[in-house]
Design goal:
Elements lengths: L1 E6 L3 H11 L6 E2 L7 E6 L4 H11 L7 E11 L6 E6 L3 H16 L12 E6 L6 H14 L4 E6 L1 E10 L2 E11 L2
Antiparallel strand pairs: 1-3, 1-8, 2-6, 4-5, 4-7, 5-6, 8-9
Length: about 180
Amino acid sequence: MRAFLALTPPERLVDALSTLVSGLKCGRHVDDDDMHLTLTFFPDVSLAELEELNLTLEMIRTGPVPLHVTGVATFGSAEPRSLHTVVAPDPALVHLQKKVETAARRSGIDLPHRRFVPHITLARFPNRMPPEDHAKIGRFLEAQGDFQFDPVMVDEVVLIQSTLSSDGARYDLLETYPIA
């Protein structure tokens, strides 16, 4: 199965991000309930591996971590794939990410080697977009690229299963781990 460990932003941040992205008139916007900051992604994980990981995650107590949104950007320059918030790589956030990644590897989970880029995805774009959608994204970034939101604290990590479909991914909460 596909799954990931993430932080779920507090409702007041989700509300602000939802209002922000409503100004973008293209792409497939992420539902409010699906907004998250991925700590580590498991492209193919077994239930046995998740059970092993569960034991370790129940013991992680790093304390709450701040999410500080410092801007809006895209992944993919010539052909943007997604629009996301830029989240400051606070030392507490980076420490938590390294701890959960290490816990996953020690549980036998084979993880892709990716650099941690803290972000919250707001919208996804098709592989090919008409020029007018490129222009809309450009205008949106010009107007909103410096969007900021005061740091908010998150005190739990969530384990989410991701099921792909033609309508995009469906997320199902599997477990919650308090970190405070």
